[in-house]
Design a protein that fits this description.
mainly alpha, Tetracycline Repressor, domain 2, about 75% helix, elongated, 2 domains, Arc Repressor Mutant, subunit A
Length: about 190
């Protein structure tokens, strides 16, 4: 990495938690300069505008949110084990999970009608997650691990909705027990695919 790339990465790493907590509209230039210790000119010398920083921050936050998932799922043999491993990640969120909760949920809600570029980033993240789950579910159907009448896309969307809802309720109430309770329902949904 050259100096400019390191500076951009530094700005993203320092501002990503702020965007995830305050959102795009709630994050000010003062927040960016305070978090980085850089001047407005330094921030905007590396990014064209606040939107560009926010888009890079979303990518960073989503990467953190998903970091544990591929490794945990890949370490399992069957489709059921892979999906159940996913619940383990969200039942006990990793210590490096983004501050402020799930960036997909946060960004999707805020950018729904107000910020097309951020909305598209959230859509890309959702589509990628859904595609990954559909692939695992289809493999389970093909291996006769899951019933042949299982709708892979519907099941993937349902799992995502349950997981996102669990994170939201847990954050809203400050009660991690709710997230764990919903993960029990996710596990039952997965077991019921057989």
């Amino acid at each position: 990495m050259n100096k400019a790339q390191r500076t951009r990465q530094f700005i993203v790493e320092k501002t990503a938690p702020i965007f995830n907590i305050k959102g795009y509209a709630g994050t000010s230039l003062a927040d960016l300069t305070e978090a980085t210790g850089l001047t407005k000119g330094s921030v905007y010398g590396n990014f064209a505008n606040k939107e560009e920083v926010a888009l890079a921050a979303f990518d960073h936050n989503w990467k953190l949110a998903q970091a544990a998932v591929p490794a945990v799922m890949a370490s399992r043999e069957t489709s059921t084990e892979k999906l159940l491993a996913l619940t383990g990640v969200y039942e006990n969120l990793p210590v490096d999970f983004p501050e402020g909760g799930c960036p997909l949920l946060n960004t999707a809600i805020e950018a729904d009608d107000t910020h097309p570029a951020l909305r598209e980033k959230a859509m890309e993240a959702f589509r990628g997650w859904k595609t990954n789950l559909v692939t695992v579910i289809q493999a389970g159907i093909a291996s006769q691990e899951f019933r042949k009448d299982v709708d892979a896309e519907q099941t993937a969307v349902t799992l995502i909705a349950l997981i996102e809802g669990a994170i939201m309720i847990s954050r809203l109430t400050g009660n991690a027990g709710y997230r764990k309770a919903v993960m029990s329902a996710v596990k039952k949904t997965i077991v019921d695919l057989s």
